[in-house]
Every structure is written in C-alpha cells, then in structure tokens.
Amino acid sequence: MNFPARFRSWLKWITNGRRLEGEMETEVRFHIESRAADLVRKGLSQQEAMRQARIDFGGIESHKDAVRAAVGIRWWSELGSDLRHGWRLFYKNPAFSAVAVLTLALGVGANTAIFSIVNAVLLRSLPYPDPDRLVRVFFNEPGVGLRDVRFSKPELDDLQTRSGVFEDVTPIFEGSEDVTGAGQPERVEGVNGSFNYFSMLGVTPQVGRLFGPQDFVPGASTDAVISDGLWRREFGADPNIVGRTLRLDNDPFTIIGVLPRGFRHPGPTTSGDAEVFCPFGFSAAPFPPPMRGTRILVHGIGRLKPGLTLAQAQARLTAMAAQLRRDFPTDYPPQARWTIEIQPLQETLVGKVRPMLLVLLGAVILIVLIVSLNIANLLLARASGRQQEMAMRSALGASGGRLARQMLTESMLLSLIGGAAGIVTAAVTLGFILRFVPSNVPRLNEVRIDWVVLAFALLISILTGLVFGLAPALHSAKGALTSAIREGGRGSGYSTKTGRLRDVLIISELAFAVILMVGAGLLLRTLRDLLQENPGFNPTQVVTANIQLPNPNESEADPYLDIPRRATFDRELLRRMKAIPGVELAAITSALPTTNSNPNAVGGLAVEGFAIEDRPVESSQHLSAERIRISPDYFKVLQTPLLRGRSFTEGDEDGKPLVAIIDESTARKYWPTQDPLGRRVRFARDATKPWTTVVGVIKDIKSDGLDIDGVPHIYVSTYQDNSKRLSVVLRTSLPATQLEAQIRHEIQSIDPGLPVFGVSSMNDVLDRSLASRRFSADLVGGFAGLAVLLASIGIYGLLAYMVGQRSREIGIRMALGARRGDILRMFLRKGVALASVGIVAGVVFSASTASMMASLLYGVRPHDPPVFLIVPLLLLAVAALASYLPARRAMKVDPMFALREV
Amino acid sequence: MGKQIDLLQGTLDMLILKAVSLGPLHGYGVLLRIQQISGEQLEIQQGSLYPALYRLEHQGWIASEWGESDNNRKAKFYSLTAAGRRQLHAETEKWNRMASLIASILRTTSEQI
C-alpha cells in the first residue's frame, strides 16, 4: 500500500478541507451541467435536462460523504461536529462541568505531582554520561554478618588495576567541613575522593578546571573544586575565583574550578548537597602507610568499562576476591568470607524510598479512578436523560458505534479539559508540595514537570476519559431504539440495564475506597505505634546540639588530633555546658538517638565486628555491634535505667583499663546464658589492641531509629575512645530556642572556629526521624478520606436519582398499602447491599495485596485485624448514612402528588 | 439500448484506471469514455464515480489538475500516475487469470472430473 501518498493526501484534506470541498462542489456541478447539455442536445428542454441529470447523478450529499470517507477524513469532520456538540453541552451544564473539571483537576493534579517526584527520583537516570555504568562497590564479610565494611588502599588498587572491570573507581569520604574566614564559621558538606572522581562522573567545569589523575599527589592535595552554590554565596560568583584560598578545617586550599550549576554528588552526603571537593592520594601522610590490613577507606564508587554487564563484572570481582583470600590468608580470615559486591549506583541511592513512592503513586492512581467512576455515574445519569436524543439520532440512521463515538468524544473533551486543569494545578502547587516531602528522599532538587510527566498526565487524562466515557458510550450504543423511545415517553427512567451498569460503578468505587482506607489505616497505625513507642529514654526536657571538630590534613594544625586531646575538649565542653543557668545535667554522645538512620554516613556509626575473649574464632561469627562513645552522665540525662553493674565515671580515662557498658540486646545476643559483667571484648578483632571489660548493662535505647529494633550497642567512655563528631545532650526545663545562643557562645569560647548546628529539643529530633512516615501516612490518609467522600457522594447521587426516577412507582406502592417504613427500607437495602458487595471486594483485594506494603509497616502486620475490621464497618456506616438521606426523601413522597404527576 | 450489465463489485476502479490511461479526462469524461468503450453496455451510477476517483487519487494512482474543458469551462482532469500504471497492469493480469480460471471451471463437463 502506498502509505506516504495516502498520508500526504489525508494531510492535504485536513489542512485544506474547505478549499477541496469547494472544488468537489465545482466538479459535481460541472458533471451535472455537462450531462444536462448533452441531454439538451438529445432534445430535452433545459429544465427537464437539468432534472434528469440530477436524477442520474444520485444523492449529491451522500456521494460527497462517500468521497470524504474515501479520503479518510469523514471521521475527522464528524469529530469536529462531535466536539462542537460536546462543547455546547459542556457550557450548557455549568454545575456538572464544574464538578467534573474540579474533581478531575484534583485527581490528575495529584497524579502529576506525585509522578513528577517518582519520575525524578526513581525513573530518570542519574545526570551523568552513561549512568548505567556507575556502580557502588561494597566490601562484605557475610561470614560475620557485616556489610559495607571499610577497605584498604591496596584493595582499592586491586579494584582499579587487577580486577579489569573498572574504568575508574574511587572511595568517597562524605563529611562536613568548617569553612572559615568570614563572619560566622560556616559548615558545608564536602566530598573527598581519588583524583579520578570527576573523570569517573564525566563532568566539565563552568570556571577553571577540575582535578584529574595528572594532579596526583600521594597524600592530601591542596586543590579544591567548589559548587556553583558556594561560588555564588561566598564569592559573589567572582569570575576570577581560580587561585583564591579557601580554609577548610583550618587547612588552606586553592580553588581551581567551579562546578556547573546542576551538578550533584551522587551519594548520601551527611545532609544536603556537597559543595567542596578535594582529592586524596590515600597513600602518604595524613594517611597511614598503604597496608592491606589498614582499612580506612569507605564508599567505593566506580564506573564499569564499556560493554561489561553488571553480572559479568560481579563474576570477575567475586573471582578476584576468592583469589585474594587465598593469596593473603592472614588479612582475610576464612570465617569472615570477605567478598566484593557491586550494585547500580542509582539503586543504592533511591532503593530505600522506592516502596514509599510506589505506595503514594498507587494511592493517587486509585483516587483518579474513583474520581472517574464518580464522573461516569454523573454522565450515566445524564445519558439516561438523553435517551430521547439518542433514540432520535438512531432513528435518523446513526449507527450504534457512531453514537458511542459521540459519547466518547464528549467524555474525552471533558477529561482533557480536566487534565489540563490538573497539570496547571500540579505546576502551580508543586513547589508547595515539595516542601512537605521528607528530606531523606534523594534527588528532590531534580523534580520538575518535564515531557515525561506531561505525557503521563495526558495518559492519565485519556485513561480517565476512557473509564468514565465507556459506560455511557456502551449504554447509548446498546440502547434499543423502540424501548428507549417508549421508556423516554413514559418518563419512568431507571431502566434495569443502566441500573446494573451504575451498580457496578458504585461497587467498584467502594472497593477502591476500601483499598485506600486499608492502606491508610496500616500506615497510620504504624505511625501511631511509633509515636507511642518507648524510645528507651525520656526525651522531654532534653536539648541537644551537634559539634563537628575540624579534621585538618596537617596534623600539626590539629588541636584535636588524639584521644587525650579530644578528651580534654570533652571535659571543658561539659564543664561549660553544666554552667549554663537552667541546665541540670550535661553529657556527650557520638550518636544522638534516631539521627543515625543512615548507617552508611561517615562519622556516624557503622556496625563493627568485635571479638569476645575466650571464645574460639569460629564461634565469633556474627559478632557485631555499634560502638557509641558517651560521657559518664549520658544515661542520667536520658533517664535510662542501669540494670546491672556501674556507669562510667570521670576516672574511666585514657591510660586506665578500658571499660564498656552493653545494652540488653547485646547481653541477650552474646551472653544468653552467662553473666556479661567482667567479660572482655575487643573491637576490630585486632590482636594488638587491649581488651575492654564490660562493667554494666543498660536498658535498650532506640539509637538508630524508633523503627529499628534489636541492634546490639556497646557503649564506651568518651575519655578513652572518642571521635570528632559529637552531640551534647542537656537535661533542662528551658526550651531549645532560649538556650541556643548560650550553647553556641560557650562552645565558641573554647574554640571560635567550631560550628554548632542542629540545636533542638530531643522531642523534635524524634519527630523529625518520623518525617517520612508521617508524610506518607498523612498523604495516603488524606487520599483515603477523599475516596470515602467521593464514594459516599456516589451512593447518595445514585439513590437520590433512583428516588427521583421512581417517585411514581413509590406513589403506587404507597397507594396500594406500602408503609413509609417499607419504602425507606427498600432504598436503604439497595444502598447498603451495593456498598457491602464493594466492601467485600475491596477487603479481598486488600488482603491479597497488603503484603506489598510490609516494608513500610512497623509493629503492624499487613493483615492487621483491627484495620481490616474497622475499615469495612466505617465504610458501611458511611454508606448507610449516604443511602439514608435519599431514602428518607423517598419516604416523604406524597402518593397523590406522585400519581397526579403523570 | 439493450439490457445493461451491472458493474461487478470492485471493477469500477479498474475501469477508471483504464479510461484515464488513454489520456487525461475530467470526471464526466471518464463516464463517457467507459460507456463508449463498453458499447453502452455498462450501467454506472454516475455519482459513485466520484468517491472512486477520489479514492484512486488518495492512493496515488491517478493525479488531478484543473484545466479547461472542450466547452471552455473549468474542469478537473485526471491522469494516470506511474504507480497507477503499475496498478492497472497488476489488476489486468489478475483479472485475466481470474476470468480464464472461471471460464475453464464453467466449461467443465462431467466426463472431465
């Protein structure tokens, strides 16, 4: 077939329809007149000849129509007239149109907004060239239950050269750095990687240059690359920035380049976006000598060589790990089963939020389905009112398909207007919505309404148009001519066929509402359980603040280089904190409870392996715990009861025997049958380190998040073992806002270069840790409420319509002796019966799919009996109420009036 | 005029192609040409000529151009395109094969089975 020619011809007709129609007219006239002229020549009169010529030609209009069909534009011109007709209906029923467009705008708008987030976070590739080749490298010790352990420089070299799978690979240190020089010291997020960090990602600078392998130095480089944001904020977008000096944690750095505006470091920075990038060689001071067993590196990120699949690369790495275990048996104890794992970088970045986002997307899709079912119901009611129109058109020769197409065109018109309104709604409110999205969702700064989102919105609009257009279309297509005219004439209305279709719509609407309510119920119960969860301490009247000690590369410039120096700082800090009026007790911890939900964060806790004295090496498998460094009063500030033994004292300091306090989980897990007091443990299983003696057992504290149970913790004294990231906890009756200035003042009188951040009450800290759960529970809960409202409007509308249509029947029933109670029950029964079927369907569906939500739940089983009991009962009550109101109106029908109405 | 034969389904297109293959014609001319070469034997519903002409043009087998008729009036003239010529050839082949096949079936006598 000659498609190009046909398409050209079709296009010609679409664009030049009016001219071509005129030409067709001329052509036909020419034919008829030529024919008439011939007939005149044969002896007919002029008038008779014209008449005969017209008869011979046949029906001009129907032939023209056949021409239009032949060139494939008939449906086009019909579409035009259907659209005009639909548009007239649209503005002739402003109330109906407004309701439909508003609910659609809401449904499509919510879908567009949520999808724009899903698209940016889950679907869109990372904004680097060939993002599929970027992977995260994990070093695991499955034998001892450890994942993502640190690695050494020789192991990094093995990845880069020996494995043969990476084009570039680098460790990533993410952390905060103190930028000093101007005004209040600022704390920015920084990233330290190898010199190939930027070539691995494939970035080009907007000013200056980026560091690369040619800049290699074995230790710490003094080159720094800064983000567009820092450049504008701190340096006023100075085009001559290159060569200027930046002080980070007291070290001077030379700025060599500025990153492009949209660049974002592909990893979980401790908070916010990374703004300073400095390279390390990792093999000379300030780094220890590169030994295989000196594992100081974290967060491997690499770019696979082109043409290599993930599975092939993984196989080679697994083989290399096995070979290394054989080559260096002392560095890789066999029971640890050390190995290397790679995962797509995007997956590791967004994997955690995927379930939440998918549940939200599911919820908004259900909402738009309910919206469209509701509109279908309204349209169906209107279609019943238009039966006479349809019967008339059908009598004049319109086919069933033609009528169905007209109804569908009207629905599509409606859905596209609603969809456009929805897109506008989403575009206008997106910024507002994003403010409520918890900040642990990555890539939020990439959320925008792009072509993919628009296409999705259009698809949703078309689908809703199909959903609510199909019912009336089928209805009108099947509408039998004679019965329609007869029924219409009789004015009784509620025909069984339409009735059944509307029943199905109501049932589905309720079923969807049940699904949403069950989802919302489960999420809300999880949230409520978490809010009531005992965190293992008393968070009220506790104020917290965070401090980051600087980490300069020049060790001479580091006043907090070793444990004794940091311990001195700790003591001074505590002395000053306790001196603040209104502060009763003060303590230090390396891990503020519930702020450490990201165990990958550097400086925070990772689970560490340890050894127990007098246990054979094989049985030390799965020995791991989180180490938390605390000052003596920590448990007193938190009011967590000591169960056995003693707390730390000021005397547990450097040079004295090392001591530890364990929590109940640790005791239960590692000393199930023995008394842990007096037992000795050793971190990192390093035989050169001294043993630490367990001196006390404390009740469990939910240190890693309210929804994380059973992680064993080992507390050590901050005077014996400490780190540069620390938090102070103060027991006080004063609010955080009132104390903030004093806390800052006291800390900066010890060291004016120290930034203090996150001053807030412990209750706020707990609250923030639930932000993401609260967001999804509130949103799904809101959608469920909306669904119930829409479903009850649906039931109400259906029954009210039925009552109106059947008022004559009601009158007759009453005249024949039916009591008002019978009438009431008749309608009530109808509504409740429909609702019950829908509810049962919804419950069955929810029960079979609820387990998909398991990862979002805590303390609540996916088949939580209360939720599955309360939701149906609640909906049944709502349905009964929604049926009662119209049923009561039916009861009040005056039989005389109803009968006279005929 | 003797009894006229109704046009077989689907043969109108072929006749039009044949008619314009002999030289450009306007719509009425196509009708006259077909009647002339069929010896006034074929009955063509005059109006149905136009859907067929437009369909053939739509398929790119004939092309149209406005010109002057014999009586100096503006008329649309149709002519065969290269694709139309190929189509006419193919249709003619098919028709001839079909006709001889049908003819041989109809000639069959009981002895031949």
Query: Can you identify the CATH superfamily of chain B?
Result: Winged helix-like DNA-binding domain superfamily/Winged helix DNA-binding domain
List SSEs of chain B in N-to-C order: EHEHEHEEH
Alpha-carbon distance between the two ends of chain A:
61 Å
Rg of chain A (CA only) = 37 Å
Shape of chain B: elongated
Mean pLDDT of chain A: 83
Count of individual beta strands of chain B: 5
What's the alpha carbon Rg of chain B, rounded to whole Å?
17 Å
Helix content of chain B: 40-55%
What does this structure look like?
The complex is a heterodimer of chains A (902) and B (113). In chain A, the strands form five sheets. A six-stranded mixed beta barrel of chain A has the order 4-5-10-7-9-8. In chain A, strands 16-17-22-19-21-20 form a six-stranded mixed β-barrel. In chain A, strands 3-12-1-13 form a four-stranded antiparallel beta sheet. In chain A, a hairpin with a 2-residue loop joins β8 and β9. Chain A has 26 helices and 24 strands. The radius of gyration of chain A is 37 Å and the shape is globular. With 902 residues, chain A is of the alpha+beta class. In chain A, α11 runs parallel beside α14. Chain B is α+β, with helices and mostly antiparallel strands and 113 residues long. Chain B has a single domain, classed as Winged helix-like DNA-binding domain superfamily/Winged helix DNA-binding domain (Arc Repressor Mutant, subunit A), CATH 1.10.10. A three-stranded antiparallel beta sheet of chain B has the order 2-5-4. A two-stranded parallel ribbon of chain B has the order 1-3. Chain B is elongated and about 65 Å long. Chain B starts with a strand and ends in a 6-residue tail after the last helix. Classes of the chains: A alpha+beta (902), B alpha+beta (113). At the A-B interface, α1 and α3 of A face α2, α3 and β5 of B.
